[in-house]
Design goal:
This protein has 55 residues and is mostly helical. The protein has helices at 2-20, 23-50.
């Protein structure tokens, strides 16, 4: 429960920051995060198919 409260507070701070940042900066930051998450998802999916594990 404490984790949820901390996550919501952090989300509020981030959303407040984005609201005051220029639109261009927010769009570039969103695109960078989207590319990062896409690469991460691709690597995770590709790694599981090959049977490699970090354990």
């Amino acid at each position: 429960m404490l984790f949820l409260v901390a996550a919501l507070m952090l989300f509020g701070v981030v959303m407040g920051t984005v609201a005051h940042a220029p639109l261009g900066f927010s769009a570039v930051a969103a695109a960078v995060i989207a590319v990062w998450l896409t690469v991460f998802a691709f690597r995770e999916r590709h790694g599981r198919r090959r049977g490699t594990s970090a354990r």
